[in-house]
């Protein structure tokens, strides 16, 4: 199976594999899902912005991945992974998406002072 969009490469996986809890072996019941598959599913959600219910089947049931995500989050495992990975981050080409920058209302075509007129009219009533 080839590498899918948003999945970790072997090099990336090697950097974080030891930070995750060991996979269960030898226990009764259903075998646990592979940590790499679970983490790739978590990365897919984070990068795609899709809701959990639109989760691709290749990672398993969304409820299973969500459960692992919550456990790793509550246990501080994900914080540790992202803290370690951020140490290697290259910030030379950092950019900010302009959609997060608030524009003044007049930049959208509102008339200058229109908000003042409305508030003055409301006070007069």
General form: elongated
SS strand fraction: under 5%
The biggest beta sheet, please? none
Order of helices and strands: HHHHH
Kindly provide the radius of gyration, computed on alpha-carbon positions and rounded to a whole number of angstroms.
23 Å
Unreliable residue stretches: none
What's the tally of helices?
5
Q: How would you classify the helix and strand content by structural class?
A: mainly alpha
State the end-to-end CA separation.
69 Å
Number of DSSP E strands: 0
Measured as a percent range, the helix fraction is: 40-55%
Overall residue-averaged pLDDT value: 79
Keywords:
125 residues, mainly alpha, 5 helices, elongated
Overview of the molecule:
- The protein is mainly α.
- The chain has a domain at 38-88.
- Helix content is 45%, strand content 0%.
- It is built from five helices and no strands.
- The chain has helices at 10-16, 35-48, 62-74, 77-87, 114-124.
- Helix 2 packs across helix 3.
- The longest helix is centred in the first third of the chain and has 14 residues, at 35-48.
- The protein is elongated and about 75 Å long.
- The relative contact order is 0.10.
- The mean pLDDT is 79.
- Residues 104-125 are annotated as: Disordered.
- This is Insertion element IS402-like domain-containing protein.
- It comes from Peptoclostridium litorale DSM 5388.
- Keywords: Plasmid.
- Residues 8-82 form the Insertion element IS402-like domain.
What's this, in brief?
It holds the Pfam family DUF4096. The chain has 125 residues and is an all-alpha fold. Helices cover 45% and strands 0% of the residues.
């Amino acid at each position: 199976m080839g590498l899918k969009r948003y999945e970790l490469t072997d090099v990336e996986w090697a950097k974080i594999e030891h930070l995750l809890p060991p996979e269960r072996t030898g226990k009764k019941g259903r075998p646990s899902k592979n940590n790499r598959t679970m983490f790739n599913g978590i990365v897919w959600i984070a990068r795609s912005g899709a809701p959990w219910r639109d989760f691709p089947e290749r990672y398993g049931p969304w409820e299973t991945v969500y459960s692992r995500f919550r456990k790793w989050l509550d246990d501080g495992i994900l914080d540790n992974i992202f803290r370690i990975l951020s140490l290697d981050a290259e910030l030379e080409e950092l950019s900010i998406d302009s959609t997060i920058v608030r524009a003044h209302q007049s930049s959208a075509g509102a008339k200058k002072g229109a908000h003042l007129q409305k508030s003055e009219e409301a006070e007069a009533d």
